[in-house]
Amino acid sequence: MMDSNFTQQQNDYAVFLPAISSFYATFVGRQRYETYVDPARIPSHFTNGLESGNWLSNDGLFNYKWSLYSSGHVDLDTTKHLPKEAMIRERDRSTSFIVGDSGGYQIGKGVWEADWKDPNCPKAHAKRDAVLKWMDAYMDYGMTLDVPSWLQRSSQEARDRTGIHSYEDACSATEINNEYWIRNRKGECRFLNTLQGENHTEADDWYNRMKKYCDPKQYENHFNGWAMGGQNVSDVHLILKRIVTLMRDGLLEKGLHDWMHVLGTSKLEWACLLTDVQRAIRKNYNENFTISYDCASPFLAVANGQVYCELTMEDRKRWSYRMMKCFDDRNLHTDTTPFAQAFIREGCYHKFDETIISKGLTAADICAYGPGDLNKIGKEGSTSWDSFTYFLLMAHSVALHIHACQESNRRYDKGIVPSMLVQEDFDRVLMRDVINEIIGCADSDKALELVDEYSRLWMEAVGTRGYTGKRAINSNTKYYDLFQEV
Predict the structure, then answer these.
(1) What percent of the chain has pLDDT over 90?
(2) Which pLDDT value is given to residue 484?
(3) Cα torsion for 245, 247, 250, 251, to the nearest 10°?
(4) Which of 61, 86, 304, 451 is close enough to 90 for a disulfide, judged by CB 3.0 to 4.6 Å?
(5) How many whole angstroms separate alpha carbon 418 and alpha carbon 317?
(6) Strands (E), 188-253
(7) pTM of the prediction?
(8) 3-class SS at 99?
(9) CA 297 to CA 220: how far, in whole Å?
């Protein structure tokens, strides 16, 4: 079983941010103010009650100081006392660190209805103001409120509900939000200028229009770093090109722009790749630079009835964390078999990688309802799981995902390399060596030439969204390269 103090194990790796589910946070917060979970239901090794599942606290069974939380799932009213938000609002800011996601996804899906391209729209104004105040109150870093460029290919309903029908609409609406935040930010939160774009052409245009908001020569209250969205998320070619232009433009400066976040990145190979980028920038340009990445996979997997059970990290192979369907049987509600043994015994999978969370669980901790037991709404449902089952399995899966990101870097440093990060068809080329060469190049024009020269190598590093590289062809990037919707 791995060490449980992940904060101490972090080393100089790129920082993984678990994207905390509001469902999960509610358990920790409400238990502080009421009996949200019956103490008899809490496993015995949770010696600090539900705080044992709070990795941001010293009372957690495992400790990890970094996370991400989205404003898209919270009550933004900072004047309210909200026990369900206590895990975030009442954390010790000196020992924890949270990056706030601004809720651009909610705009993109049409959930936050408003005419976002109208600077005088009351609904849009109220939301951008509320998100800003929430970020300023509770976040260490926060992403600016972007209107994502992918909204142009979202549903017709989402486009109608937001007033965004084109790339230009999204870009203009984001400029409105940025201008408001620049003028009205008042707290200690540092802001990451969110970059979007569905292809290289859009991404370059977006950057050229938004970079001024990080420029201290143009804005005294400038933003403090960068968040990579759109194709920037999964395209090494584009990320490296952007980093070179940031250094050339003086927008990756020590003390001014020390943080970059890559949205929604879950592949273990990218944990190593982003560490390579971070180390190269620290060595050659900004020693304070940190790059982070997030994903919600540990929460989403459990929501779908799955649990993390195995890590695979073999040399020159694909690296991954395996999630399998967990057992769900009312006949196990009194079964004290250790969870890992029951998982294998019930035929879920032949292996189970333990964490400090799973180590103390039994089959009965998972299968809370027995035959004939009624759930909270007074019915006998089809599942043996109660809502707390999800909390327990999420806690385990978060712990294993954090460990996976750190262990992948440890193995990578020992020379165990995933197939994605080495090109051996002709000459043996390690991606880390090329990244160092590019970022260490003093001539930005030459550095950009090198990025293009190694385009074949970048094609190997497939991102979470399944495409990468300037020449990558897919239905989204190719369509918007060829056509402009009107």
Answers:
(1) 88
(2) 34
(3) 80
(4) 86
(5) 5
(6) 190-195, 225-228
(7) 0.94
(8) strand
(9) 38
